[in-house]
Automatic annotation (TrEMBL):
Residues in the signal sequence: none
A Pfam family recorded for this sequence: Glucosamine_iso
Name of the protein in question: Glucosamine-6-phosphate deaminase
Domain Glucosamine/galactosamine-6-phosphate isomerase, chain residue ranges per copy: 24-238
PANTHER family: GLUCOSAMINE-6-PHOSPHATE DEAMINASE-LIKE PROTEIN BT_0258-RELATED, GLUCOSAMINE-6-PHOSPHATE ISOMERASE
Species of origin: Persicirhabdus sediminis
GO molecular function: glucosamine-6-phosphate deaminase activity
Length: 254
């Protein structure tokens, strides 16, 4: 259900686009159904659906729901091309901590998407990712999480609204948040990220956040003046950003 803000967002549309669920699992059902319906609408008119994907703990409930819908015969991924937000630098694709590995484990190996239709940014020529996505008319829908410092993808604080896909040094707070996934301590300090320009050129953005730990950054990103200091705040200016939250992450909004 929509929530009322303590601090009003920059425009009234944002308030209508905030959806709060009892749990991440319940929110994931709604988002998966939205994606499934969009895929089927594209299939009916013979069009490819171009879906941007995130990694980390936040989207895992969504990927479980998409797998469930596929197993039930409710969605077919053969007309889908996916575009991941980011990948660590200097890490092999078959490394279990790579985002290639994450996506295969949590989604791709459980649905019928051809792997040649899955795309990731490359450190060899990051700007080629922008050109590739622009050449197909941009993304139809993009899944986003939000970092504790307000980053989206790996666009760390200081990233401008028109920033391209690029190699970036990870912020200390991002490394601290993600080092749990590297128990051997060999955490990369650089990554290739989709740029904010390509993200903001997407037709529909879906930002998900779960838990009390995301409450402060969600509230700030929705109420502050959009700025490179908090990259997620630029989503305020997008005409179709949908926020899916649980009660914990929405707790400082009402």
């Amino acid at each position: 259900m929509p929530v009322e803000m303590i601090s009003e967002p920059a425009n009234a549309t944002l308030r209508k686009n905030i959806h709060v669920s009892d749990s991440a699992a319940k929110a994931a059902v709604a988002i998966a159904r939205k994606i499934s319906n969009a895929i089927k609408q594209h299939q009916l008119i013979g069009k490819t659906f171009r879906l941007g994907l995130a990694t980390g703990a936040t989207p895992v409930p969504l990927y479980k729901e998409l797998i469930k819908l596929y197993q039930q015969g409710d969605v077919n991924f053969k007309n889908v091309h996916t575009y991941n937000l980011d990948e660590y630098d200097e890490i092999s694709f078959d490394n279990p901590n790579s985002y290639h590995g994450f996506m295969r484990e949590n989604l791709f190996d459980h649905i019928n998407i051809p792997l040649e239709q899955t795309h990731f940014p490359s450190g060899d020529d990051p700007a080629a990712y922008d050109r590739e996505i622009a050449s197909v008319g941009g993304l139809d829908l993009l899944i986003l999480g939000i970092g504790s410092n307000g980053h989206i993808a790996f666009n760390e604080p200081g990233s401008e609204k028109d920033s391209p896909s690029r190699l970036i040094e990870l912020d200390a707070s991002t490394i601290a948040d993600n080092k749990q996934y590297f128990p051997d301590g060999d955490m990369p300090t650089r990554a290739i990220t989709m740029g904010l320009k390509t993200i903001l050129d997407t037709k529909t953005l879906v930002l998900m956040a779960w838990g009390d730990s995301k409450a402060s950054i969600i509230a700030e990103s929705l109420s502050c003046t959009p700025s490179a200091d908090l990259p997620a705040s630029f989503l305020q200016d997008h005409p179709n950003t949908l926020y899916f939250l649980d009660h914990g992450s929405a707790s400082k909004l009402s």
